[in-house]
Amino acid sequence: VLSLADRGYVARIHPLELWTVAFLRQHPDSGKSELARASEQELLEVYAWLFKTHRKAAQDSRIRL
User: Fold this and answer.
1) Are 34 and 27 a contacting pair, CB within 8 Å?
2) The domain containing residue 10 runs over which residues?
3) Structural domain tally of the chain?
């Protein structure tokens, strides 16, 4: 089973876009706050690599210090 990040890579689509489409198909009446609440775990999963301390250069380039 591929992770969300891996599925995004294979599909060449941002993983959170894939997740958002799936969520909205299952919950078509959801608002932005419900979407934000439901995506907390997926955000952590997709961006986990960015929070690893040995990736400081990647962190800095994404944050643009």
Assistant:
1) yes
2) 4-63
3) 1
Contact 28, 1 (CB under 8 A): no
Please report where in the chains the tokens 């198909």 appear, as a residue: 25
What gap in Å lies between CA 34 and CA 54, rounded to an integer?
Answer: 33
pLDDT tens for the 65 residues of the chain, in order: 998 989 999 999 999 999 999 999 999 999 999 999 999 999 998 888 777 767 777 777 777 65
Burial per residue of 1-11, b for 16 or more beta-carbon CB atoms within 10 angstroms, e otherwise:
eeebbeebeee
∠ CA 47-1-35, nearest 5°, is: 45
Q: How far, rounded to the nearest angstrom, does the alpha carbon of residue 59 sit from its chain's CA centroid?
A: 16
Residue labelled with tokens 């962190």: 59
- pTM: predicted TM-score of the whole model, two decimal places: 0.74
